[in-house]
């Protein structure tokens, strides 16, 4: 298993479109198919699927100052990049089951202590 930091961005929606849909084919106006997406998992988002997850994250980012103010936390400058993307790459030759993939994600999430393991 190899974790890779892909990068940061400003758009949860743009990242979701990239992650949840197949690459756009020549002549298509938008990414329409989702055949390459095996499964989607979210944490701390009330069981939201891919579409709901990006909406929760975008709403939270847009409400950051109000949430900080309500919690009594000092409001600082607005972050320039709130969307973070990393990937856990498993060797396709191993042909891992969905259960193994999910265990790898969960193990990474629990042991990392950081944004990515």
What does this structure look like?
Helix 1 (12-20) runs antiparallel to helix 2. A two-stranded antiparallel ribbon has the order 1-2. It contains four helices and two strands. 38% of the residues lie in helices and 13% in strands. The protein has helices at 12-20, 50-62, 64-71, 98-112, and strands at residues 2-9, 83-89. The radius of gyration is 16 Å and the shape is globular. With 117 residues, the protein is of the alpha+beta class. The mean pLDDT is 81. The chain has one domain (2-112). The chain starts with a strand and ends in a 5-residue tail after the last helix.
Short description:
The protein has 117 residues and is an alpha+beta fold.
In N-to-C order, the SSE pattern is EHHHEH
Return the average pLDDT rounded to an integer: 81
Structural class determined from secondary elements: alpha+beta
Spatial shape = globular
Percent strand equals 5-15%
Distance between the termini: 10 Å
**How many separate domains?**
1
Number of distinct beta strands: 2
Largest sheet, in brief, is: 2 strands, antiparallel
Low-confidence stretches: none
Trace the largest sheet across and list its strands: 1-2
> Helical residue percent?
25-40%
Task: Set out the fold topology.
Layout: E1 2-9, H1 12-20, H2 50-62, H3 64-71, E2 83-89, H4 98-112
Q: Which descriptors apply to this entry?
A:
single chain; 117 residues; alpha+beta; two-stranded antiparallel ribbon; 13% strand
């Amino acid at each position: 298993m190899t974790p890779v930091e892909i990068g940061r961005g400003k758009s949860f929606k743009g990242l979701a479109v990239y992650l949840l849909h197949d690459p756009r084919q020549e002549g298509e106006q938008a990414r329409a198919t989702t055949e390459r997406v095996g499964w989607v998992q979210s944490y701390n988002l009330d069981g939201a699927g891919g579409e709901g997850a990006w909406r929760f994250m975008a709403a939270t980012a847009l409400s950051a100052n109000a949430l900080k103010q309500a919690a009594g936390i000092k409001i600082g400058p607005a972050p320039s990049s709130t969307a973070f993307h990393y990937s856990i790459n498993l060797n396709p030759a191993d042909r891992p089951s969905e259960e193994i993939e999910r265990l790898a994600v969960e193990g990474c999430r629990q042991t990392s202590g950081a944004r990515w393991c």
